[in-house]
Amino acid sequence: MRQLHHAVARLRARGRRVRPRVCHHRRMTDNETAEFDAPTNLFTAHLPIGETLPPPVDGIPFWDVCPYDGDVRIKVLEPPVLPEPPRHGEDPSACRCVTRPHEGVIWTDGAWTVTHSGEPTTIPMVMLNTAGHYDLADMPADLILQLGPMTQRIERAMLRLGGIGRVHTSRWGDGSAHFHQWFFGRPEGMMQLRGTCLPLWDDVLPNMPVDLWVGAMAAIGESLAADGGEAFPVQRA
Ligand SMILES: [Zn+2]
């Protein structure tokens, strides 16, 4: 934070009006947002918004793990949208944890649920969710303490499927305000599927057969239940 204040001071010394959003500790009102245009955000001021960019030399499109080949174009970067549109579950009463709490659940211990994605996927893929309506920033301390052990339990359950070389996990929070953490099982030996491009490969490769997917999801649920909690039959969306 001290470095941020120094950066603000330097920009002010150059005569720029700076009102960094990161210094606000509360949600801004519409009136305040109207004053906060893109160039005043320290973290967007350097971005080439509206410009056409060349592909990066040796960037991800040229990595051996990237699923795409040939010429690529970079989309023109759009200006920030402020205030950001609401995510699913910003209103807790309309969140899936209230309206469809059992959907896709293959295991729960009352505090956590593990869910499948509704339909077969290319690779084994599950999601860890809190049973109650929390996001990471407001998750109670007792649940935060369980997050590490839960992450390890799910990785072990996926490795027990066999044929899985590595389990990857990611937590993005742009789609839903309810905490959810993804787990991906990379098939053993599929070295092109390594690393951060794995979800891109899942987008372009065919899904596994339904019976295989149902069996894998059930096996993950039962494997978790062996250490506590309860597994549920796999039901497609
Ligand atoms: Zn929720």
Small-molecule binders:
zinc ion
Return the string of H and E elements: HHHEEEHEEHHE
Q: Main β-sheet, in a few words?
A: 6 strands, antiparallel
Portion in strands: 5-15%
Number of domains: 2
Low-pLDDT ranges: 15-36
Estimate the helix proportion, in percent. 25-40%
CATH architecture of the largest domain: 2-Layer Sandwich
Structural class: alpha+beta
Using the CA coordinates, give the radius of gyration. 22 Å
Text of the CATH class of the largest domain? Alpha Beta
Number of helices: 6
Mean pLDDT: 87
Under CATH, the topology of the largest domain can be stated as HIT family, subunit A
Could you tell me the number of beta strands?
A: 6
Oligomer: single chain
How far apart are the first and last residues' alpha carbons, in Å? Answer: 45 Å
Shape: globular
CATH superfamily of the largest domain, called what? HIT-like
Instruction: Strand order, main sheet: write it out.
Output: 4-5-3-2-1-6
Main traits of this protein?
alpha+beta; HIT family, subunit A; 2 domains; six-stranded antiparallel sheet; binds zinc ion
